[in-house]
Amino acid sequence: MAQVDTDDGRGLLAEQRRAAIAAEVRARGGVRVTDLVLRFGVSDMTVRRDLDALARDGLLEKVHGGAVALGESSAHEPGFEAKRTLETAAKEAIAEAAAALVPRGGAVALSAGTTTFALARRLTDVSDLTVVTNSMRIAELFAQRLRPPGARHGATVVLTGGMRTPSDALVGPVADQAIRSLNFDLAFVGCHGISIGAGLSTPNLAEAETNRALIAAARRVVAVADHSKWGLAGLATFAPLSAVDTWVTDGGLPEVARAEATEHIRHLLIA
């Protein structure tokens, strides 16, 4: 469990403060240490530790007196822990809404990602569910929460093989071959970006191919992506918007974007 930073006069968890700092860097392009000290009521040293942690996670670049946004790159892929601190409330709302779509006794695929991980936490008690995933994090989560051997209910989890990416996805020919031999009722897929021009996209070429396999094996495709992903495009597109049956997102998506999305996606579900 995250610890409360005792140097933080407002009692924020360190991860909450760092998420706020990362969001401000994305919005403004940069921040100053002195401004952050005043905003959060913490010491100069605490702010610098926050910036160090965010820089290690690939979310910003430290400079003298503060930090700046990384140069926008369609091929940049932050690690799992870095992405997990972003838009946490939105991801939890999306996960709750998406979980309601899962049928008891069904077979579902979960792509790797922090939003699908949030969804997986809500599926561990769904009766007689079969889950196929290429996410090491999701497989570990189910392994920790599975009922005792011989129980009649609970999930059966299949982890594909493959090579590991920075986001803890298993990708490559081994993963793709395993997925192509299966059939799913639903495939829940996350993405780096979602847009009219680029559809669903990711910075990782191999992960894009594995996501294509997941989508091709599913009767219905559900994209789970928060509002901040709208308009972004990663290096590789793995599905056009027309391939998405439902996009589950959060209330932060602007009305204009909602109207644009519904012209291309069959169903837009706002959590």
Q: What's the overall average pLDDT, rounded? A: 86
CATH fold title of the largest domain = Rossmann fold
Measured on Cα atoms, how large is the radius of gyration?
A: 19 Å
Task: Report the top-level CATH class of the largest domain.
Answer: Alpha Beta
Q: Major sheet: order of its strands?
A: 6-5-4-9-12-14-15
Describe the fold and architecture.
With 271 residues, this protein is of the alpha/beta class. It folds into 2 domains: 14-71, Winged helix-like DNA-binding domain superfamily/Winged helix DNA-binding domain (Arc Repressor Mutant, subunit A), CATH 1.10.10; 81-270, Rossmann fold (3-Layer(aba) Sandwich). 37% of the residues lie in helices and 21% in strands. It has 10 helices and 15 strands. The chain has helices at residues 14-28, 33-40, 44-56, 80-84, 88-99, 114-121, 136-145, 173-180, 205-216, 255-262; strands spanning 30-32, 61-63, 66-68, 107-110, 130-133, 156-159, 163-164, 170-171, 184-189, 193-195, 199-202, 218-224, 236-239, 246-249, 267-270. The strands form 4 sheets. Strands 6-5-4-9-12-14-15 form a 7-stranded parallel beta sheet, with helices on both faces. A 3-stranded antiparallel beta sheet has the order 1-3-2. The chain has a 3-stranded antiparallel beta sheet with strand order 10-11-13. A hairpin with a 5-residue loop joins strand 7 (163-164) and strand 8. Helix 1 crosses helix 3 and helix 6 packs parallel to helix 7 (136-145). The longest helix has 15 residues, at 14-28. The chain is globular and about 55 Å long. The two termini are 26 Å apart. The model is unreliable at 1-9 (pLDDT under 50).
